[in-house]
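Example 241.
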Amino acid sequence: MKQYFDRLYKQSNPEFMAELRDRLAQDQKTFIVTANPEAFMFGEKDPEMHALLMDEHVTVVADGIGIVKGAAMLDVQVTERIPGVDVAENLMQYGHELGKKIFLLGSKQEVLDRMCRVLAEKYPNLTIAGAINGYVPDKDAAFEEIVAAEPDIILVALGIPAQEKLIYKHFSKFEKGIFVGVGGSLDVLSGSKERAPEFFIRHNLEWLYRILKEPKRIKRFYNSHVKFIFRVRKEGRKLRK
Ligand code: UDP
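Predicted structure in complex with uridine-5'-diphosphate:
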């Protein structure tokens, strides 16, 4: 578990965003994992997830407060959260400023339709190279379409760990592109679902807001976040021995 924390991006949120913009401007191929406790818990169970979290070509950022707190418990210095939804939104803005091409894979068709309308309105200089919903049976075939479209930004919204594993599987076929698994971010950025009110964001309680809105998340929360806390504590005790 500690090995995943050591892989985390350590600088501030603005520094990360500035680097991201540069990488996009310079067509530097990049894969970003916006990690929450679930991602690290999957890493311990799933060899593919483990491999990609440990791959030095993959940038891992602390999406959730659980990761930032866990890092502190393990004496790993992480400055602050870098939420996936902000990464996705900033990439749209940078893509607009730099006249780049975006491809969206994942989420429901109605969410994608709304997202494309928002993109055309708010970011007119960003070209939509394609958008394929996340319920098509063959996601590998969808990725071949992405390869052919040669986009600069590729947002994959299938949930952890499916989105990361799919990106990793096809990553070597690309010469450029910023790839991010964005979970439910398109639901929020398209206006289909609301992000937590400012109060929850400021107090690092977005996770609580999501459970209150969708109580069926509670089981998933227990299986990842609660077990995660015990796991990190155990690791911390080992370190201090
Ligand atoms: N999703 C999908 N295909 C699937 C399962 C999920 O496209 O087979 C989408 C779903 O519509 C949602 C996203 O994946 O937009 C996952 O959202 P969730 O809120 O669960 O992700 P989180 O942000 O919690 O990782």
